[in-house]
Amino acid sequence: MSKLLARLHDARRSGVYRVPQSDEVLDAVRGSALDVARIDLGAASDKEQLLAQFASALAFPDWFGRNWDALEDCLSDLAWRAGEGHLLLIEKFGDLRAHRPDDFGVLLDILSSSAQYWRERGKPFFVAFVDRTSSLALPDLFRARCA
Q1: Upper half-sphere CA count for residue 21 (Cβ side, 13 Å)
Q2: Nearest to 79 by CA among 110, 39, 123
Q3: What digits encode the pLDDT tens for the residues 87-106?
Q4: Which long-range contacts (CB under 8 A, 24 or more apart) does 43-48 make?
Q5: Exposed e or buried b for every residue in 64-87, given b needs 16+ CB within 10 A?
Q6: Domains and CATH numbers, the chain
Q7: C-alpha to C-alpha distance for 40 and 54, rounded to whole angstroms
Q8: Rounded distance, CA 120 to CA 141, Å?
Q9: What is residue 143's predicted lDDT score, i.e. its pLDDT?
Q10: Which of 26, 31, 111, 134 is deepest in the core (most CB within 10 A)?
């Protein structure tokens, strides 16, 4: 097992991170029991589209209310998704971050809260923003230390 895969199986390290590219992460988890969802926010120019991208990528149930509370509820459940843990790989978020910084901030808060929820329950939950320019003030998943 690679160091990265071992890290992704460690629920104590659950959190929100950045990675310079997706390939190495996808290679590390290939064949593992982790549930991986790729979420492309390139077409998300507002909150509604952001929520729709999450709903589609994670196959949210019909009861998803398409609001912030419902997003947090779904991310704190995920019973419909198989896996020993969850990895959300978020790509192409730059325009949303630039044009809707408040929505992007709420998203980060919800993702952090969800990671904490799963960490407390001993199940891995990782969010990795593909950030080629290291513009996000998030820890690098490849250099993450156990809290």
Answers
A1: 3
A2: 123
A3: 999 999 999 999 999 999 99
A4: 44/95, 44/96, 45/95, 45/96, 45/99, 45/100, 46/100, 46/103, 47/100, 47/103
A5: beeeeebbbebbeebeeeebebbb
A6: 3-143 (3.30.370.10)
A7: 9
A8: 19
A9: 83
A10: 111
Complete DSSP assignment for the chain? --HHHHHHT-GGG-EEEEES-SHHHHHHHTTSSEEEEEEE-TT--SHHHHHHHHHHHTT--TT--SSHHHHHHHHTT-TTS-SSEEEEEEE--HHHHHH-HHHHHHHHHHHHHHHHHHHHTT--EEEEEE-TT--SSS-BGGG----
Task: Decide if 32 contacts 10 (C-beta within 8 A).
Answer: no
Mean pLDDT, 10 residues at a time, over the chain (147 residues)? 91 97 96 97 95 98 97 97 96 96 97 98 98 95 69
Closest CA to 5 of 106, 84, 107, 120: 84
Place of tokens 């820890």: 139
Q: Which residue has the tokens 């044009």?
A: 99
Q: How many CB atoms lie within 10 A of CB 49?
A: 15
Tokens linked to 49:
């589209």
Find tokens 């998943």 and name the residue: 141
